[in-house]
Write a structure and sequence with these properties.
mainly alpha, elongated, two-stranded antiparallel ribbon
């Protein structure tokens, strides 16, 4: 059994002639605002205030930017301008200057180079301290 699947479900219905409901509301609202300003004030003020409102209504009703309605673009622009921004930049690493120095050997009175004082037992104690974190208790088990 075959069923009829609706096509073009993303297209809005044309209610007022060639206009959708949203388009009709935008245009009627802007024209109503301009007429109200004209009736309250003179023609010059109605033209100065009504022109940007009529232009905005035309943009909202008919213009799409990259396939998105202008309402969505305008909303995104307002929210972007209103929220705080975090500015990041790529810092260039500072060049490290490597100075080569020759090792200096201290000579003792016997003419032999001086030792650093680390013996095999001192190295074991140091390794144990690094492994366990406890320099004095060599035989107790550490808690992990």
């Amino acid at each position: 059994m075959r069923f009829a699947v609706p096509q073009f479900i993303d297209v809005e219905d044309k209610i007022f002639g060639p206009l959708t409901l949203k388009q009709a509301i935008y245009l009627a609202g802007s024209i109503g605002f301009t007429v109200a300003v004209y009736l309250r004030f003179n023609l010059f003020i109605a033209a100065v205030l009504g022109t940007p409102v009529l232009l905005l209504a035309f943009l909202l009703a008919f213009i799409k930017v990259h396939g998105r309605p202008f309402v969505n673009v305008l909303t995104s622009a307002v929210f972007y301008a209103a929220k705080t921004k975090l500015y990041l930049w790529k810092q260039t690493p500072k060049k490290k200057v490597i100075v080569k120095s020759e090792p200096v050997q201290e000579k003792t009175t016997t003419g032999q180079p001086a030792t650093s004082g680390l013996t095999q037992s001192n190295l074991k104690k140091l390794a144990w301290t690094l492994d366990t974190g406890n320099p004095f208790d060599k035989h107790k088990k550490t808690k992990h």
